TrEMBL record:
Boundaries of the shown chain within the full protein: 667 to 956 of 956
UniProt protein name: EAL domain-containing protein
All residue ranges annotated as the EAL domain in the record: 31-285
Originating organism: Parachitinimonas caeni
Length: 290
């Protein structure tokens, strides 16, 4: 803040003060610029979804795909979510963007089914502001009715840290979403301090082991222990478990040995534009042979 910057400036001299404030201004200016461009992007629907396959480790079949948003920026090309989702969340634009994602993912999934492709569940990431909205169930019910997608083919991903923000309202929302027939996955699992007591009461279908653990398997004994513990926890709670960010054959082998159900990651497939995803659904994926 300004006081702290001023204090800092007095401590360390005039040049530093100049540097400090212009840096802060640049950051604030960039956020403002992105915000106004995002408003335009929402109006003009400049977003696209890419899809990353989720594969059953034993059959090698694609059983799902995660929808991942990209921004088709008129000057900057394809922009990844890390560059604009945090700003959209901060500036309250995430609900409009997230609603578009839900509708587009449902529409696309139904279109693939209508084209005769094997049915899969599409997973959509929800932000805290969406998940904790009063009308989240009503909105999703509307999307399903409008697109004609059956609820069981839509999976909602909510991070462990989001669901722990307000556990009472999470239990109620998850109950309501489950009774509609939707699937629920807990994203980035292992990074957000879940109470095991609540985990039992949340009506999730799936845990997604965070990439930060998977990436150091099998070399790091601690990450091996954590990954193994999450897989066992899921099994004991009757949840499916998927490992995200699988990049190497060694990771695949470790996960197979630990009886992980599904994997998602560059080893199997990077996120794909819709046409390429449709092609994969038709032809299938070659699964890594150790
Ligand atoms: P996430 O939900 O944990 O999604 C997984 C991210 O890991 C994706 O990055 C994916 O491309 C990347 N990934 C997958 N496999 C690998 C791998 O083997 N190695 C590595 N290094 N990375 C891998 P992406 O597409 O950049 O998305 C980043 C995050 O942005 C997502 O993390 C999610 O939190 C958020 N996000 C993406 N789409 C949406 C959306 O529609 N709504 C909201 N609210 N957030 C979104
Ligand atoms: Mg996700
Ligand atoms: Mg994740
Ligand atoms: Mg590590």
């Amino acid at each position: 803040n300004a006081d702290a910057a001023m204090y800092h400036a007095k401590e360390s001299g005039r040049n530093n003060f100049q540097f400090y404030t212009s840096d802060m201004n640049a950051r604030a200016y960039e956020i403002l610029a992105v915000e106004s461009q995002l408003r335009r992007a929402i109006e003009r629907e400049e977003f696209v979804l890419h899809y990353q396959p989720q594969v059953d480790m034993r059959t090698g079949r694609i059983v799902g795909a995660e929808a991942l948003i990209r921004w088709q920026h008129p000057e900057n090309g394809l922009v990844g979510p890390g560059k604009f989702i945090p700003i959209a969340e901060e500036r309250g634009l995430i609900v409009a963007i997230g609603n578009w994602v839900l509708r587009e993912a449902a529409r696309q999934n139904r279109a693939w089914q209508d084209a005769g492709l094997p049915p899969i569940a599409i997973a959509v990431n929800l932000s805290a502001l969406q998940f904790y909205r009063q009308d989240i169930c009503g909105y999703i019910a509307g999307v399903l009715a409008d697109t004609g997608l059956e609820a069981r083919y839509l999976e909602l991903e909510v991070t462990e840290s989001i669901i722990m923000q307000d556990v009472v309202s999470t239990v109620a929302t998850m109950d309501a979403l489950k009774s509609m027939g939707l699937k629920l996955a807990i994203d980035d699992f292992g990074t957000g301090y879940s109470s095991l007591n609540y985990l039992k009461r949340f009506k999730a279908d799936k845990l997604k082991v965070d990439r930060s653990f998977v990436s150091d398997v099998p070399g790091d004994p601690d990450d091996c222990a954590i990954t193994r513990a999450i897989i066992n926890l899921a099994r004991n709670l009757n949840l499916k478990v998927i490992a995200e960010g699988v990049e190497t054959v060694e990771q695949w082998q470790f996960l197979l040995h630990e009886h992980c159900d599904e994997v998602q990651g560059y080893l199997v497939c990077k996120p794909q534009p819709p046409a390429d995803m449709a092609q994969l659904l038709k032809a299938g994926l070659p699964i890594p042979k150790p």
